[in-house]
Structures are given as structure tokens and as C-alpha cells.
Amino acid sequence: MSKKYKIICFNKCDSKIINDFKSYLKKNKFSESNNNPDYLFIFGGDGTFIKTLQNYYNKKVKVVLINYGNVGFYAFFSRNNLPTIKDILNEKNFINPSIIEVAQNKQKYYAINEFILNSLHVLKSDIYLNDNIYQSFKGTGILITTPTGSTGYCRSAKGAVIEPSLDAYELVELNSINHSNFKTLNAPLILSSKTQINLKNINSENDIFGIADGIIKFKTNQINNLTIKLIKSNIKIFYNKNIKSYLDKIKETFIK
Asked: Which region, left, alpha or beta, applies to residue 53 given φ > 0 means left and ψ of -120 to 50 means alpha?
């Protein structure tokens, strides 16, 4: 049975490379289709990858990133090293990534890298972990990140970088207010995937923004409750679980 695929490229991609790759797939009984593809081949960087996934979190599709950008933590191929049929058909090369699910009333939002709650004014919130009060927070925002997302905004915000094989996620305070009468932990907190976060009594004098992977999902000035947890996505992504591959990307990107 023919496998269906779709190619996405937001930036100017080399048409010869794309066409040659399509010919290669066709020879191996793959057919191009925009409707419910079995495989999604994304030519771009992590930004293109993350933006595209917003439309696929609830779909069962295998995703392969071919790096055409500057940063490629999710990419294990490039324009000079395209995936082979053996790579594509090997189920062991794919994982169901952990993603963040944020529930606000009946509305749900998803992020593979991070979810940020912030405001231009002081943001206040009570933070609960599995229904136990952790702390009250005052600052500009709260960031929740996955292990694969921890090398992004989280790292810039002085959060910890989490090795991707860990079944965990992270809560980071953004510009927390600490003085003699009010203190927070003021340090990144690594949580088990079994731990649920509840943000309650959220308010600010300015608009509060809920941002999933760089996309504003809502804007308000008061929220009674947000429920945040780590779940396994329906999508599967090509991911090399070898620690050396991950460390090579860390060194190539940050340590030169």
C-alpha cells in the first residue's frame, strides 16, 4: 500500500533538492497528498518545525525535519544528507514526543517547546503541584518547558537544560519579585511528568498573555485557573535518542 506524504517549506528551498526527493519517494511507492498524510517532511529549522506542529498535534502523522535553518535541535538531516527509505520506514527512529497541555476551562492549548504566561505589569498567581500549594508568585511571568524545549527561551531565562530522555518538565520564574516581606524559591524547578501544575487566582493590572511556542493563544486580565501537564502527543517525530548526537548539537550551538 502506498504511503502518503506532504512536504512543507516556508522559506526559499532549493527546488532541485525538493524535486529530487519527491522522485526518490515516488520510486519507493510514496504518493504526495495534502490530505491526512502518513509522513510530513519539513524543510526548515526548529522555528518552521514548531510552527507547523500547531496544526498536527491531534493527528497521527510521522514528522521528519530536514534542516534548512540556523537551529536544528529537532533535525537529524540536512539538504546534503536527506533521509533514506530505510530511515523513514524504521519505526524505532520515531518517538511520540512529550508536549505541554494547557487547559483553560474547556479550551486546550499545546506546545512542544514551552508555554509562557506573562504580563507587562506584575503578574500574580498561586502555584499548586498535584493540588498542593507550592508558592505564591509575583513577577513578570511563568514559563513551563519540555526537555527538548529547555535549550530555547528557558536557557535564556536562566533555566536548566534538561537531557531529552528524562521524563520530566520544568517550571521557571520570570523576573520574580523578592524582598523581606515576600519571597519565592526563585530557581528553576524540575518536575516529574506525573506532576500536574495548577495556576490559580491569576491576575495583573495589565493584560495577561498565554503564549504557546511563540504564538499568543489568549489575552485577558484575570484567570481563575490554568491546568498544565505533560502528555504524549499523537504525532511521531524522527528523533535520534543517542546522547552523543544531543551533546554534539549542544556544543555546535552554544559551546564554540
From this structure: alpha
Residue 10 phi, psi (nearest 5): -80, -35
Pairing between strand 168-174 and 132-145?
antiparallel
d(CA 152, CA 256): 17
Nearest to 62 by CA among 251, 248, 234, 214: 234
This prediction's pTM: 0.91
Question: pLDDT tens for residues 243-252?
Answer: 888 888 888 8
Catalytic residues: 46
Report d(CA 8, CA 163) in Å as an integer: 28
Closest to 76 (Cα-Cα) out of 52, 106, 25, 41: 41
Nearest partner of 77 among 239, 230, 253, judged by Cα: 239
* pLDDT tens per residue, range 223-233: 999 999 999 99
**Closest residue by Cα to residue 13 from 50, 39, 43, 56:** 43
